[in-house]
Amino acid sequence: MLRTITIGSCVSVQGLLIGQLADGKVMVRVDEKTFVGYPIPSKRAA
After folding, report:
1. Which branch of life, at top level (predicted)?
2. Strand intervals (E) in the chain
């Protein structure tokens, strides 16, 4: 499943969901790299 996270005030990364951490952060993988950051909430159409 693809997830988008923020890893800075202006930087976001989209990749495959690897796991969740206890502090609310999410790990995603892009190619050979793993990034950790806060998930961006998904918006649902009404």
Report:
1. Bacteria
2. 2-6, 12-20, 26-30, 33-39
Task: Please choose, from the candidates 41, 42, 39, the residue with its C-alpha nearest in 3D space to the C-alpha of residue 18.
Answer: 39
Could you read off the pLDDT of 14-31 as tens digits, one per residue? 999 999 999 999 999 999
Tokens of 7: 């890893």
Its pTM stands at 0.82
Domain boundaries, given as residue ranges, for the chain: 2-39
| Angle of CA points 25, 14, 36, to nearest 5° | 25
